[in-house]
Specification:
- With 305 residues, this protein is of the alpha+beta class.
- Helix content is 43%, strand content 15%.
- It folds into two domains: 93 residues, Phosphorylase Kinase, domain 1, CATH 3.30.200.20; 188 residues, Aminoglycoside 3'-phosphotransferase, Chain: A, domain 2 (Alpha-Beta Complex), CATH 3.90.1200.
- The chain is built from 13 helices and ten strands.
- Helix 5 packs parallel to helix 10 and helix 10 packs across helix 13.
């Protein structure tokens, strides 16, 4: 520790320990003071890797030094997007070596919190709107800082497929390797959020019902194939309910077809955060065919041996 507002946290293990023990609110208050923001009501959010503080209409995100690439990605993505249903940068800076962003605050609650309260129709509506929102995001020109060497990236994903996913049996391994094979046609890389979990999707209920309010946390943003975007929302919000899958994909503009199912499945299995073995521990599925049916239904051609 040092005498300032923030600890020395160049080491990931030390930071993760300090994150739960250290009082970071004075650091957020100093950021408010710097930018003339009233600190009344300042509170720390239950966030992921980095530190997030909430104020009326604003959020402060302080990025831990061990992961400078997260700040660089979010900074570049939010500047390129420019607001809308995504956080807009109001202020930025560095405090004792820790970069931070002050952004607009997306209204509502994470989909994870809302999901048990929603009817089937509300889930379908929300996912259809999420598909449309992702389509709009993918129309944003990719900033130079986020241009990814996609062929090299995809090749690396294929090479580490088994070690990342840890399939529970030889049968699962063979199915996964077969289904994750990419045979890409030429495509235009798009700006990807790349981690669309239900913690990052926000929605709110108003007089007209449930509606999507936005998407947060662009620390993993990159460029690449648009279908790479769907792995997380399919598993977290659609698994076991194929109609929800097709609500999401149709909102994006994808046709309901065996080809769509096969391609989306391949990119979902290849995702760098994909952990098939861990998922199957939480949601046991008999075999690969049952896994595909849980996502896409049993329409002819959407599954197969």
């Amino acid at each position: 520790m040092r005498g300032g507002l923030l600890p020395e946290a160049a080491d990931p293990a030390f930071y993760l320990e300090a994150k739960s023990m250290y009082d970071f609110v004075p650091a957020a208050a100093e950021i408010c003071r710097r930018h003339g923001i009233p600190a009344k009501g300042l509170s720390r959010a239950d966030s992921g890797t980095h530190l997030v503080f909430l104020l009326p209409g604003m959020a402060i995100k302080v990025f831990a030094p061990p992961w400078p690439e997260d700040f660089e990605a979010e900074h570049a993505a939010l500047h390129a997007i420019g607001g809308g249903p995504f956080p807009a940068i109001i202020h930025e800076g560095t405090l004792e070596g820790w970069p931070y962003l002050v952004t607009t605050r997306i209204a509502g609650r994470p989909a994870r919190e809302l999901w048990p309260e929603l009817s089937r129709r509300e889930k379908e509506t929300l996912l259809h709107d999420l598909g449309r929102q992702l389509r709009d995001l993918h129309r944003t020109p990719v900033p130079p800082e986020l241009q990814t060497d996609w062929p090299a990236f995809a090749s690396g994903l294929e090479a580490t497929l088994e070690s990342r996913n840890d399939p529970p049996s030889a049968g699962w391994r063979d199915w996964m390797v077969d289904r994750a094979h990419l045979d890409e046609d030429p495509f235009e890389p798009v700006l990807l959020h790349a981690d669309v979990t239900w913690d990052h999707v926000f929605a709110l209920r108003d007089g007209e019902g449930i509606r999507l309010s936005g998407l947060i946390d662009f620390g993993d943003a990159m460029s690449g194939h648009p279908l790479y975007e769907f792995g997380a929302p399919l598993l977290y919000m659609c698994f076991g309910e194929p109609d929800l899958t097709w609500s999401l994909l149709s909102g994006y503009g994808l046709p309901r077809s065996p080809g769509t199912a096969r391609s989306v499945l391949a990119y979902s299995l290849l995702h760098r955060f994909g952990r098939l073995g861990r998922w199957l521990e939480k949601v046991p599925v008999a075999d690969g065919r049952a896994f595909e049916e849980a996502l896409f239904g049993s329409d002819p051609g959407c599954t197969g041996s």
